[in-house]
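for the recovery benchmark. tokens below, seq after
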């Protein structure tokens, strides 16, 4: 699905009217101005954002619970010095600027712009004021619902071949201010849950310096490659712009970090991955492979916390904040933050490459292999980390350690 008409500015940037491909790589190389624009924006504005964040006290303190977070875990603050948040604004602000400039404001772009603004404003306020879990849940669901009631409908799902699973048993449609809206049941309910899952599973990757920036950069590059091949101009344009911004941000966020994405970035990355993948017509199995590591890790952590802490309701479950994520377990094996970043990024590149290289029946085997690989890795790393922690507790020297 890609119904937006690009503006003349975008046509000039990408030379759409002169798209005669002299080599098989030209269709990708035409996007280099957008990659460069995102990179330069981040390089120039991240230091400014960092200074503002420090001035306002919007920072992460090492080994310290954040104010207003009753269920926060000080052990998760593994950075060594006070580090400013709000770095994600260097990625999200270019998107809010680019959409109305590069594309016609229509039934596709306006809901995406509104949903993006909801997430950016809500998550920035979360960075500043440490909003309660219920409020975070509220603006995330509001953004997801904005997409669901737009013309971006999940009317069917394609997993492996051309066979579609129909998700349209009922349809509601109307027009507000000349903008057509629609909602299909149960497809768009599933879409809300899917976007919410993508937002939080990717957000939870950000527990180790530079990890979420590196991981998201990889996913957006893979999405760009897919979108160019499927002629989805909207997805390819935004994906490469975001990739450029993330590359610039990663320069500052790489451990030891000078700035972090904060909620203002972490909340948006998963949202854009899920929405851009849907718009470009990526098969559901491909999207699952692209997000296999964070989604399976999130589901594993939720199940682990439910069994261990026995929360009374979903809100209480969301508030639980421990060190059970995959990157925490890698760190528990005495790996450095840089090693953890490289391991998780390598896994995502491997599985993501399988996602875009496989087609037809091969995608079925790639999906099963990818899921089995990630589940096996998570279980194995947790087993080794738990074993190491038990051995440390039993060692005679542990009673004298600080």
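predicted aa per position
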């Amino acid at each position: 699905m890609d119904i937006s008409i690009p503006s003349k500015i975008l046509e000039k940037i990408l030379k759409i009217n002169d798209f005669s491909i002299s080599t098989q790589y030209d269709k990708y190389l035409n996007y280099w101005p957008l990659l460069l624009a995102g990179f330069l924006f981040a390089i120039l504005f991240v230091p400014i954002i960092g200074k503002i964040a420090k001035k306002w006290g919007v920072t992460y303190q090492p080994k310290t619970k954040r104010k207003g977070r009753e269920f926060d875990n000080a052990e998760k603050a593994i950075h060594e010095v006070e580090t400013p948040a709000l770095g994600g604004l260097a990625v999200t602000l270019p998107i809010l600027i680019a959409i109305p400039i590069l594309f016609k404001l229509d039934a596709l772009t306006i809901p995406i712009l509104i949903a993006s603004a909801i997430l950016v404003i809500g998550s920035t306020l979360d960075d500043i004021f440490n909003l309660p879990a219920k409020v975070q849940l509220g603006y995330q669901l509001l953004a997801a619902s904005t997409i669901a009631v737009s013309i971006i409908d999940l009317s069917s799902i394609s997993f492996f071949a051309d066979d579609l699973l129909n998700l349209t048993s009922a349809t509601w449609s109307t027009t507000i201010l000349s903008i057509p809206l629609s909602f299909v049941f149960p497809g768009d309910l599933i879409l809300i849950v899917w976007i919410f899952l993508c937002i939080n599973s990717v957000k939870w990757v950000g527990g180790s310096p530079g990890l979420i920036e590196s991981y998201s950069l990889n996913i957006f590059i893979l999405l760009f490659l897919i979108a160019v091949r499927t002629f989805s101009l909207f997805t390819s344009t935004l994906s490469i712009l975001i990739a450029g911004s993330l590359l610039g941000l990663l320069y500052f966020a790489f451990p030891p970090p000078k700035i972090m994405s904060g909620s203002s970035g972490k909340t948006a990355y998963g949202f854009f991955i899920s929405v851009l993948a849907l718009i470009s017509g990526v098969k559901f199995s491909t999207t699952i492979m692209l997000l296999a590591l964070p989604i399976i890790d999130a589901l594993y952590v939720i199940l682990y916390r439910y069994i261990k802490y026995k929360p009374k309701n979903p809100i209480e479950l969301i508030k639980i904040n421990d060190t059970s994520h995959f990157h925490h377990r890698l760190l528990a094996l005495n790996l450095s933050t840089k090693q953890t970043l490289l391991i998780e990024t390598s896994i995502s590149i491997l599985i993501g490459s399988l996602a875009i290289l496989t087609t037809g029946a091969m995608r079925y085997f790639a999906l099963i292999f990818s899921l089995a690989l990630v589940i096996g890795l998570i279980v194995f790393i947790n087993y080794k980390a738990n074993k190491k922690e038990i051995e440390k507790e039993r060692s005679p020297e542990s009673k004298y350690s600080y």
